[in-house]
Structure formats: C-alpha cells, structure tokens
C-alpha cells in the first residue's frame, strides 16, 4: 500500500508542474496570441525575465510537447517558437481558470489591475 501511494501521481499536480512557475504561463499566453514568436520578441514582452530563465522555460515547455522550436538555417540564425497542438489544447482550461480568477478577484475586491495580456482581452 505504501509503495502504491509513493508512485501515485495526481493529474492536477502533474499538469500544474508542466505549466506552473513564474514564467511558463506568461510564455504560453504570449504564444497563444501569435502564430510564432522570435526569442528576442518573447524576451521584450516578459519584463524582468533573464536569458537563462527564458531559455530554461522554453526548453522545458518544448521537452513536454507544449512549445515547438523552429530553427531556420540562415545568416543571421533565426529561431521561432509556437504552441504545438498539445500546447493549444490547454488554452481552453486556462481560459476557464482565468475567468474564475477574475470572478474571485471581484468578489474579494482585489484592487490589483489585470496584467497586460488579460487587460487586452477584456
């Protein structure tokens, strides 16, 4: 019994581990709005992210099949990122969670403004 409990995985924890953290959801939100985005454009839209953290987050999202990385063999080299079909499949659940968050913020009378991405979709 004890061994089974250690091997058990909560699907919600698994999902949150894939997209959780400070930067992964903002990256997904940006990629959801555009067909593909170049690295430097992503960096400019993510105020405060370091190159190392952006690279690491993109690599993890790519390894988990959420983000596609396309490298073009040109001079200068060009790399673009986009959401995969799997990555796009999480957008509907995230929209529902966002709506819940907006409702909860209103109920709790949170005075914090919405982020730029959410403000632009109102």
Automatic annotation (TrEMBL):
Signal peptide: none annotated. Keywords: DNA-binding, Transcription, Transcription regulation. Pfam families: HxlR. The keyword Transferase does not apply. Transmembrane segments: none annotated. Residues 10-109 form the HTH hxlR-type domain. GO terms for molecular function: DNA binding. Gene3D superfamilies: Winged helix-like DNA-binding domain superfamily/Winged helix DNA-binding domain. PANTHER family: TRANSCRIPTIONAL REGULATOR, TRANSCRIPTIONAL REGULATOR, MARR FAMILY. This is Transcriptional regulator. It comes from Blautia pseudococcoides. The lineage of its organism: Bacteria, Bacillati, Bacillota, Clostridia, Lachnospirales.
